Amino acid sequence: MADLTQNPSRNWGTLLSALKTPWAAIVVILSLVAMLDPANLQGTISFAGAALLSTGRYILFAVFLLAYLKATGAEVLVAKAFEGRQTRMILFAALFGGLAPFCSCEVIPFIAGLLALGAPLPAVMAFWLSSPLIDPPTLLITAGALGWPFAIGKAAFAVGLGLFGGFLLRALMSGGAFQNPLKKEEKKGCGSCCSAPKMEGKPVWAFWKEAERRVKFRQEFGSNALFLLKWLALAYVLEALLVTYVPADVIATVVGGDGVLPIVTAAFVGMPAYLNSYVAPPLLAGLMEQGMSAGAAMSFMIAGSVSSIPAMAAVWSLVKPQVFATYLALGISGAILSGILFQLI
């Protein structure tokens, strides 16, 4: 039998990694509720369980769709958006940014590959801005938590922000800005969570005819189902706490009402307080129940997505600081404009 005491540092590392998981967070939260407010424990679990079940059909379809796209190799279609005239590239890059079946860190090697192949920076920026905002699973989870109008609105604003950033960067570059936007030494990857997506070949839509692709489908289905389940379970537990313990008048005072100030406030709060794209919709649903305006919720979600650590790491690792600053400025201004437009609609 193996001696597990031979490498105590490795054992402690494994333990610490386990404690950082959403499952551990759920156990800790519910344990605290049981100790500090035992009368509310059952209500918290019931609230989170009912919310998770109501979103179940969206989760199942999202997992199936993502596994299907991965098994078929559909991500190669995204690379084709960066072919042809630059105007066409920006249009398709912004559109495909919201449809690409990439995990957040896959964007980094994908973008690195595009830049290495000489793809123009405005088209790459259009993809960069729209990709963190929406993808098929996020669209469905957002619809389940906040309704289809909100989900479709976010998807439209994602494409709009990509177009806005891409064409603005093109105009700035035509005026002489960002002539040498890339760092001399580019980082090759994003850590251990994802491998670089394929950029050539053709999708095989009838993937079940190939054994390797069937295995890929099963692996993606299982891993993504577990990923969504654990994060959404945590999200709904946090929403239950939010609705129960945070006074509605506090939320309404800070980000409630129909003015521009709550929308601006939500954008600047949302950018540093980035939330996982699957956690944010349930929490925003709770905030809106407490008095948060729809425009502020949209502004908060878009600003938080643009400022996600993988998205910012992608920009910082590949381009110079002035391009990084432009990315953040486009993200915050786009979030505010999106919130104002959504509030008016």
UniProtKB/TrEMBL annotation:
Q: Does the keyword Ion transport apply?
A: no
Query: Topology in the membrane?
Result: Multi-pass membrane protein
Residues of the signal sequence?
none
Annotated TM spans? 12-35, 47-69, 90-119, 139-169, 226-248, 260-284, 296-318, 324-344
Q: Which GO terms describe its cellular component?
A: plasma membrane
The organism named in the record is Thalassovita autumnalis
Entries under InterPro entries matching the protein: DUF318, UPF0718
Q: Which UniProt keywords apply?
A: Cell membrane, Membrane, Transmembrane, Transmembrane helix
State the similarity comment: Belongs to the UPF0718 family.
What is this protein's name? Answer: Permease
Q: Where does this protein reside within or beyond the cell? A: Cell membrane
Task: Indicate where this protein is primarily found.
Answer: membrane
Q: Which domain of life is it from?
A: Bacteria
Q: Does the keyword Lyase apply?
A: no
